Amino acid sequence: DTEVTQTPKHLVMGMTNKKSLKCEQHMGHRAMYWYKQKAKKPPELMFVYSYEKLSINESVPSRFSPECPNSSLLNLHLHALQPEDSALYLCASSYRGGDYNEQFFGPGTRLTVL
Amino acid sequence: SQQGEEDPQALSIQEGENATMNCSYKTSINNLQWYRQNSGRGLVHLILIRSNEREKHSGRLRVTLDTSKKSSSLLITASRAADTASYFCATANTDKLIFGTGTRLQVFP
Q1: Which of A113, A105, A114, A100 is nearest to A35 (CA)?
Q2: What is the distance between the alpha carbons of residues B105 and B87, in angstroms, rounded to a whole number?
Q3: In whole numbers, what is the pLDDT of chain B averaged over residues?
Q4: In whole angstroms, what is the distance from residue A60 CA to residue A34 CA?
Q5: Contacts of B59 (CB under 8 A, 6+ apart)
Q6: Which residues of B touch A50 (CB under 8 A)?
Q7: Is B19 within 8 Å of B107 (Cβ atoms)?
Q8: For residue A84, which phi and psi values (nearest 5 degrees)?
Q9: What is the pLDDT of residue A67?
Q10: Bridge partners, residue B92, by sequence
């Protein structure tokens, strides 16, 4: 199994809702990442988990809350989002943390905040 | 925190032609990677070139790296309509990747 899966594919939520994005990989990778991508822009790193511990938070607002329950799963909990948070949210994993390895990306969750 | 600048921003060619994309970056790197993204989908890793390498090949892809100029290029030879996508360079320095601005490639049949 060499893929990263993400659910849901699409999500529409209001500014008062609470929702979660899920990401899963079964490649034995020990580093997992959340990226945010706006239209026609490159992905921007949000969080990095290395060996199930949060190692990087790129000054992301607290309305985004990551969670890594185990080495295969990564969640992103969303609460009180703003319309400008609408974007494609990408999950990725790599064999280990550090900058030497390629990252495997999931297909993304297209989020719309009304 | 955007690291790389890519040019051109957009490129349109006919099938069979070669496509060249360039990436410039600002700080020292351990490696540079190229990724492809089909419209609205996830990214796919294409090739990784380390800072002590100057050129690397993978199938129809050729990547060069010039650390003195802080630049890299990606050449796709004999392009196909299926190569239509956005291409991003990504520099690896500490423990994260920083993506360039991207080149949107359109290959017409």
Answers
A1: A105
A2: 7
A3: 93
A4: 11
A5: none
A6: 95
A7: yes
A8: -70, -10
A9: 97
A10: B31, B97
